[in-house]
Amino acid sequence: xxxxxxxxxxxxxxxxxxxxxxxxxxxxHMTNSMxxxxxxxxxxxxxxxxxxxxxxxxxxxxxxxxxxxxxxxxSMISAQLIAGIIIGSSFLARNRMYxxxxxxxxxxxxxxxxxxxxxxxxxxxxxxxxxxxxxxxAGRNAVxxxxxxxxxxxxxxxxxxxxxxxxxxxxxxLQKSLPFIxxxxxMSTFPVITSLLADLKIxxxxxGRLASNTSxxxxxxxxxxxxxxxxxxxxxxxxxxxxxxxxxxxxxxxILIVFAFRPLILQIVKQIPGGQPMKEIHFLAxxxxxxxxGFCAENLGQPAPLGAxxxxxxxxxxxxxxxxxxxxxxALNTGLLLPAKFAISGLSLNxxxxxxxSSAMITLVVIILGxxxxxxxxxxxxxYYNLPFWDxxxxxxxxxxxxxxxxxxxxxxxxxxxxxxxxxxxxxAYQRNSILHSHPSSDLRMLVCIHNEDNVPTILxxxxxxxxxxxxxxxxxxxxxxxxxxxxxxxxxPNIRRGxxxxxxxxxxxxxxxxxxxxxxxxxxVKVQHYIAIAPYKSMHDDICTVALxxxxxxxxxxFHKQWTIDGTVGVNFPSIRTVNxxxxxxxxxxxxxxxxxxxxxxxxxxxxxxxxxxxxxxxxGGEDDREALAYSSRMANHPxxxxxxxxxxxxxxxxxxxxxxxxxxxxxxxxxxxxxxxKERITYKEEAVKDAVxxxxxxxxxxxxxDLLMVGRYHEPESPLMLxxxxxxxxxxxxxxxxMLATSDFLFSVLVVQQQPPVNGFLRNNTSKVDQNxxxxxxxx
Length: 782
Fold this sequence. Notes:
Structural class: alpha/beta
Number of helices: 25
Helix content: 40-55%
CATH topology of the domain at 427-771: Rossmann fold
Oligomer: single chain
Shape: elongated
CATH architecture of the domain at 427-771: 3-Layer(aba) Sandwich
Strand order of the largest sheet: 5-6-4-3-7-10-15-14-11-12-13
């Protein structure tokens, strides 16, 4: 008969280094239960089942907490901490049986070790994602705000720590805790700040970039104060000057990382083929190096995750290393081990450890002074520049107050930022910035967005069709868009060139070469400027709108999120790119064109070297978007290799449905187009009258073999008989009713859906009498 095991360990309190601690005596064989529960033993007496139960419980409670907090604009980190509080001794763990089964002292040690391994890998990834030169690039504003934002709360807290012992009597534990509380409370850590900004979708906004740069400066300040000044302070207090050797060894450790580990990892990166995933041997070699750095940091008296973080900062960010590591570690590490780390922090919090008395009040005053100093340290310099050891010796009461205060401040700050700061407000403008309202003699300023190299041939062909000429030059702003992967901070920088083609075989190099060749081919008529934007897809539109606003673009060209195969079916679908397009459509400071490429505008059929004239058709139904499309096509009309057909589609009884103001604006532009087309064989004007939406569909199908590119406005009156019934089948509202129909696999020609600058300042789409007036009184583009 099997022996029943009822005792797995014994627990008792013993004097610790800083306070009274638990000592656990545990049997060495109590790891795997091997199914002994069938014989009547206690499954939770074994460490492996306890560990798995702990991880399952933490993940479930964390996700449930986040589900309820997400509508309140709270972060996953806050949810993980609150989940730890719920699981811990403040709530569930007050039940003795629950605490003994799931979180016994021996089991707590194991999950903390596992979680710390996950936290170390997480900090390494964050270090890889950080560009170590960001401090040099931060600028004077960010350096000053970051430095003062750390120094003032540190100084106020330090002043309180020096003053309080002379005013009231405090116990020895609190006196040891206060300096660490001051240091922790003065920090504005880069990972937390960037996570907050990314969640609020403002990481790549002006405020987001400033906050990212400021937080990394603050991190450097806090690390310096914690490591250097802390070591010197201990040496002075206890007259143990041997502690200063720790500083020397830390410097030696940094030198080892820079001159030994960094070159070794760079050599590993060179062995990764371009565009290929990292091999298993390379991944394991890097993990071993991370462990070595963590081991060295522990031996130098620093946390192991700190050594991994410094190693990560020493290696290059972005692909291929950063992206590959994130892909391999993110799901398991961030999804399972990291929540355990933050939940354990919540487990350590006991709300009932907070007692009414002088120690709690002193701790709370120090914490509040730190937040006041942090706010003043960032707010005052911002106005000047006209800008819109962890818990090792901290008492339970101090730790609880520090964590609760942080949760409260974070919980209030997130919704406030979300409510008060909207990057799109700066894109709103009273003056229309479009092709239609541009001066005829000014250059056409086009911002073209590139997500991948497949977008380049079609967009180049569209630029060539735009007819750059001496009297109508084109300024092209090429925005190379990349998803923020393998990096922590968003980037928007000019891609500086030196006036000649490059032989760099990278994606950016090939894109730059293609557009520079186009500029040289149209020398004197075309100017090209290159930009690189690295941002999350959910806020990538901010970079697009920022460049469009700063460069005064008349129109933004964005590729459609679907790509077609040679047989006309959808080959690739990018939902993230669709999200970008939808945001641009709503917030762009100029007109927008969504380019649906089906290959006719690519290399196989070019405006310059096609077998015959390149055929462009413009479908005009009426409204401001169709007028913008007509204005754009009128630039193309004089190109020697383009045949342009303009089709005015009207209902049979159009007089019944025409709005007088819109009719006058439509008729004026069409009359200008007809006058411009007189005597030109390559320009054709047609009027088509149809009864209903069926007639509209029939007309679109008749264009199948007569055009290579169809241009049409995005918005059309839904009450028009030409649209009735079509809107019910609208799959992509960002294309409008007609554009959505043309985006189906029933059509084989390319499409450019044009939207004039979105209405702002309360104007509605149908308020054409206010929106569509030319405020400058200048002639349109005809």
